[in-house]
Each structure stands twice: as C-alpha cells, then as structure tokens.
Amino acid sequence: MSSQTLKMGTRGSLLARAQSNAIARALEARHDGVVAVEPAIYKTMGDKILDRPLHEFGGKGLFTKEIEEDLIAGKIDFIVHSCKDVPVTMPLVDQHGLMIGAVPAREDHRDALVCATAKSIYDLPEGAVVGTGSLRRRCQLLAVRPDLRVEGLRGNIDTRLRKCRDGEYAAVLLAMAGLIRGGLFDDTTMAPIPSSQMLPAAGQGALLIQCRKDDTRTREILAVLNDRNTAAAVQIERNLVAALNGDCHSPIAALAVVCGDVFTLQAAVGARGGHPPIIRACASSNSSQEVLDAVTKSLIRQGAIELLETEAVEGLCRLQ
User: Fold this and answer.
1) Is 85 a catalytic residue?
2) One of 85, 108, 111, 215 is an active-site residue; which one?
3) Each residue's pLDDT tens digit, 282-293
4) What is the arrangement of strands in the sheet containing 275-285, beginning at the earlier edge strand?
C-alpha cells in the first residue's frame, strides 16, 4: 500500500487543536508508516464573533462553514468536529456530497461547574452570576435555581476559564469533554454535573470526522476510528433534535446509551430562548427507532413543539 498524506481541517482554538491532534496521532498509529496527517488551521466566523450570541447570526454552523466549503472544494481531505457544534437542521453548507467517516469513542458527556467556592449548582450563593452561552444549560440551570443570574459567555474554553478566575462570573458551565481533552480539568475548582440535574446537548463529548462521500480512500482510512456504540448513540440524539425541528434557538438536551442490544434515550426540552419549564422523557428498547419514536411522541404529547416555538416573555433576557 502506497504512502498517503491527508490534509485535516480544524479550528485553531486550544481545544480544537488538542482534539484534532489526537485524531491525527490515532490515524497515523493505526496506519503506521502508510498515512501522514497534515493540519490546516481555520479561524471560522464563529470564532470571530465574540460579542454576541451565535444564534443571532446563524448558529453553530458558523463554526463549520468555511472548513466544509474547503472540504467540498478538495482543499482538505477531512475535518474533525465537536459533534455538538455540527448543526442537525439548517446547515450553512450543502451536505449532499459530505458524510461522517467516523465517530470515535465518546469522552465524558456531562457538563461541568467551574467555581472556586462551590462543588454543585445547589451550593452556589443566592443570586450568583453564572456564565454560559448555551440556551440548553441556561434553562436547566434556572429550572432548579431560578434565583441565579445567567449571563452570556463567549470565547474559547481558555478564555472562559480566565473570565471565571478573574471574577467576572461566580461560576461558568462548560463541557467535561473539552476540559479533559484540553488538559484543563482541575478537580479543586471543577466538578461534573450529574445528568439527572443537567442533560447534555445531543452529541456532547463525541467527535465527528467528516469527509467527502466520493473519497473512497479517505473513507477507508477514517473507518478504523469508528466506535459503533458511540455512532449509534449520537445518531439517535441528533435524530431527536431533527424530529423536534430544533434550531439554534432550541434548548434541547438528549443522551442515548447503548448497552448490548438495548438503547436508552433521555431527553429534556426547555422554552425557546432558554427558559423553564422543562419537559422530560425517557424510554428504552432493543430498537433504536422505537426508542426514538417513544421519546419524541412523549415530548410532543407534553407540548414540546409549542414550548420550542414560543419564546417566554416574562423575565425574558436575551444572552448578550
């Protein structure tokens, strides 16, 4: 087999570089002496807009648009994405010629509380200012602690941690997976939030490796990193978001677990714009389609569609 160099697209943040470098090393190790990976670093529109919430400008697709355009044009061979940054609905780039070549094994799916003085959201002082740019996290936090002040937070993971250390926020909410992959997790100031208190975003903790459908050789190379259980779980979660027609304004949480031949799906939905109340549903089945249908129907019966389409008026505070 002849040697091949693949060009890998990635964002330039600390976390994106750490994730993509880990994938590059894994591919080179699995194809020892045959495959070399060369990074191509991008600063996307999502990285450039730091003073306003992304849902006002096009959503998470702003983190992927420029890189996907170059993938389609053949300037790069594959992209390493954080799964939760890849839009389920309304992508900004036509996906017809693209596919997911591999979904590696998932890292910790939970959210994390970063705070110097509290180990849980219940320990935070009354009226404490908590930073997050996530509508999903916002509504779930306010559902259990309506006294807290939730304020918008943008920037890379290291920037968010610095703002917390500098006292701009009493606490910030981040993904455990990012803290672990970035080598930033510190158990003296960071604690995972149980999924029973805060369900993650669809795909949180997972990576998606994207390539062109017609690039057979790259598809074969990437396939060795695919984890079947993670891929199945992530697909169920993303299918739920699609079934609810979720967009960048939709606070939808979903966590699927595959154990043997049993699929379990938990979901939580808040009001459009990131407000309580929270609607929840859970189901298990040996059919991924059955578990998806059961949870979707339960959420819809409870009024999830209306909740997602109607932005709360009382106490409305758009993330700035």
Assistant:
1) yes
2) 85
3) 999 999 999 999
4) 252-259, 262-271, 275-285
